[in-house]
From TrEMBL:
The protein's name: Cyanovirin-N domain-containing protein
Gene3D superfamilies attached to this UniProt entry: Crystallins
Domain of life: Eukaryota
Keyword annotations from UniProtKB, A to Z: Signal
Organism (species): Hohenbuehelia grisea
Signal peptide: 1-17
Length: 137
């Protein structure tokens, strides 16, 4: 299911947690800042199981261990139930990947620019995500 760019940016702005930045590789253009939004509940909304957060990476940067996220009580490992991808610019040439294992390894799920997966159970990836990576295709 696709979401509008403005919805994605509104969702980023509404997330109360701080944004985590991964800077690999260094000295990249601003347009290469990529964001994945993750929630512990369905429909990209805070709910009974927890809130939402976002992880921003440079092109190809890996956020290697979601246990290190401190937002919403911390430890996001194996707790992501919905996710979406957004960028500061309208550039459809990138995707983010959710990985089952540390250091962006193991089984993965690709989420394209402006795509929202409101229920990761439909993709067989509910409560599995351990690391995240975004990159230009």
């Amino acid at each position: 299911m696709l979401v509008s760019f403005s919805f994605a940016l509104t969702l980023i702005a509404s997330v109360t947690a701080a944004v985590i930045e991964v800077r690999e590789p260094a000295l990249l253009e601003k347009r290469q800042v990529l964001t994945v939004i993750m929630c512990k509940d369905l429909n990209l909304q805070p709910g009974s199981t927890g809130g939402c957060t976002s992880v921003t990476t440079a092109n190809g940067g890996c956020y290697a261990d979601l246990r290190l996220l401190s937002q919403d009580g911390g430890n996001w490992n194996d707790k992501v139930t919905s996710a979406a991808v957004a960028s500061e610019v309208n550039d459809r040439s990138f995707s983010c990947y959710l990985f089952a294992d540390l250091n962006c390894t193991g089984r993965s799920l690709r989420i394209n620019f402006n795509e929202a997966i409101r229920d990761l159970r439909t993709r067989g990836f509910d409560d599995i995500t351990t690391s995240v990576k975004c990159q230009y295709n």
